[in-house]
Fold this sequence. Notes:
Elements: H1 7-11, E1 13-17, H2 20-23, E2 27-28, H3 31-37, E3 44-49, E4 52-62, E5 65-68, H4 72-78, E6 86-91, E7 96-102, H5 111-116, H6 131-134, H7 144-156, E8 161-165, H8 168-171, E9 177-179, H9 181-187, E10 193-199, E11 205-213, E12 218-221, H10 225-231, E13 239-246, E14 249-254
Parallel strand pairs: 3-7, 10-14
Antiparallel strand pairs: 1-6, 2-5, 3-4, 4-5, 6-7, 8-13, 9-12, 10-11, 11-12, 13-14
Amino acid sequence: MVKPKSRMAESSCFFRIFSPKLHGNELKINPGFVNEYLKKVPDRMVLKCESGGPWPVRVVKTGNDVFLRHGWQEFVQDNSLQENNFLFFTYDGNAELAVQIFEDTGLERDYSAAASETHQEDDASPRVQNLGREARDPKEEINGDREERIRSFLSSCGNDLFEKQMRRHNVANPFTLRIPLEFAEEHLGRNKTVVRLISAKSQKSCKVNYTYNVRNKQCTFVGGWGKFARRNNLKIGNFCIFELVGERTFRVFVF
């Protein structure tokens, strides 16, 4: 017999339709939710969603209004929130908010489906000699000079690495990157964790969430990957080499 849900389980939630102008730097929590469930407003809360996390955020009370502020911007950037994304927040009563993200189509963002778009890609890293043939669009093709530079780098690099050619879902919503299975299992394991990506060009780094889907054995960079892709101006057809330079730390070369 299924037990009826408690009132807390049924009602401790609120939603927002995201607008970069209104919610890019802060998010106001619904007053009704505050009155009902936040009798004592915490200084901090933690956001979690399917893309990873957690994202700690500062809670600020101004008069009768309560806002998520410091840390909220990182959540927005890491999850590549867009105009009219529907955000559904569920409170667990323990200063944690689970966030579901819905696209403007009305469908919940599905990170596993995005990773599945790459099901025709080999689980092994793509080989350089096949890059020209693998490109799906003439603009993506790797010319001879660039291919030679990639070959030269690969032949001289002594560290473990994997390579990926950027597709649409890697450089635009929902910003995911599938990792070769054998490499991921050997170096990152089967548990969710956080990795550090360092741009070889700028030396700036980003923290990125790594997930392992046990059911379909897909290993994916999700939350934080979008920030790295935008910061490094990644485009469809770019060829990226991820060199393992430390524990869960990669130096990324873009060709």
